[in-house]
Amino acid sequence: MQDISSLKRNAWMEVNLAAIRHNVRTIKSLMAPTCKLMAIVKADAYGHGAGVCARAMASAGAQQFGVATVQEALELRQSGIAQPIVLLSEPPVETIDLLLENDIMPGVTSSEFVLAYGECAIAHDMVGKYHLALDTGMTRIGIPAEDAVEFRRLVDFHRGIVCAGTYTHFATADTIGDWDFRRQVQRFTDAIRALHEAKLYPGIVHCDNTAATMLYPDIQFDMCRVGIALYGIHPAESTVELAELEPAMSIRARITRVANPRIGDGVSYGMTYRVNTPYMQIATIPIGYADGLSRSLSGEMDVLVHGRRARQVGRICMDQCMFAYPLRSMTSSTMAPELAVGDVVTIMGSDKDEYISADEIGQLRHTIAYEVLCNFSARLERVYVS
Ligand SMILES: *Cc1c(COP(=O)(O)O)cnc(C)c1O
Prior knowledge:
EC number: 5.1.1.1
Helix content: 25-40%
Function: Catalyzes the interconversion of L-alanine and D-alanine. May also act on other amino acids.
Pfam families: Ala_racemase_C, Ala_racemase_N
Organism: Fannyhessea vaginae PB189-T1-4
Strand content: 25-35%
Active site: 42 (proton acceptor), 269 (proton acceptor)
Bound molecules: pyridoxal-5'-phosphate
Distance between the termini: 10 Å
Radius of gyration: 24 Å
C-alpha cells in the first residue's frame, strides 16, 4: 500500500479503511442477521478504489459485491475477490464468455440475452447464474414486474441457465412515507409471491439501496445492496439520525507557492478575483478540475489550512487553483502565522476542529455527494490508511 512519502504529486486522496470497515459493521447492525449485505463498489467503489475497498468490506462482513460494468467485475476478480459478483444491469452479449469464465452474474432484462447466455454456458459445459431485474416503477431497467412469471416460463426450459436472484430498484426510498415507494414495494412483493405460487424459485430476493435499508428495516428480503453508506455518507437528510457513519475519503494537497500580492492584483484566468485587503496571502495548490474539483466551485468553496477555513479564489484551473489567506483578520490585530510551501491543505475532510464534507461541496455544485466522490477518482493517487 502507498504511503504519503512515495506520492508522485503534491495532491492526493486519502481513504480510511478503518472507516469503511466501521460503516460495514454499522449497516449490518441495522439488518436482520440472516439478510446478506451486497456491497456496491461500482465506479471504482464510488471513487475510493474498488479492489482495496472490497477486500476491507469483505473482512468486515460484506457477502456479495455489486458493480455496473464487466470491466469493474473483472478488476474485482483480479484483486482476489472470490465472493459472488452481480452486474447491476445487462451487459453486451459479446461479454458473455468473460462472464462465465470469471463467474460474474449478469443482471438480466431480456430473453434474448439470457438465452444467448444459456447457449454459451452449455457450450462450456456450465450453468450460467443470473439475477432477473424487475421494473416496479422507476422506469430505468428490468422487465415489467407483472411479467415476471411469464418471462420465467418463457426461458426456464433452458438447461444452461439458473435464476440466482430477483431484484428491483427504488426511485424514492429516501423520502419517508412516499406513495411511489410503497407502490414499488407492493409491485415487487406481488411479483415475488406470484413466482413462488408458480413454483418458479426467484433465488436471492433483493431491493434495498442504502436509504431503504436504513429507513425500512421491515422490508429487507434476503439481501440489501448498500453503496453510499459504506463510504460514510448519508443518502439523504432522513437517515442522518439512524446511524453514525464515518466518511472514508479525504482530499489533500501541499502548498506549492505562496505569494504576497499588492492590492488590486488579479488571480487566475480572467482575473475574476482581485486582492482587496492588505496582508492577504495567495497560495497555490496543485489540484484542479481534471482531478474532479469542478470548475463550477470557483470562488465559492473553502479549503482548510492550519485548522482554519480559507476561501478558494479565482477560477479553478485544470491542474491547480489558488486560495486567499488573510494574515490579519477584521476582528483581531494579531497576525496569523504565514503560510509556507509544503503546508498541507484539506479540500475535503477534517483539519483539527474544522470539516468540509462531500455534501457541502455537492451543494455548492448543485449536485449530490455521490458525484463529488466519483469525480475525485479522475486522476488523484490514493493513499490508504488503516
Ligand atoms: C448504485 C446502486 C445501489 C446502491 O445505492 P446507494 O444509494 O449508494 O446505496 C443499489 N442498487 C442499484 C441497482 C444501484 O444501481
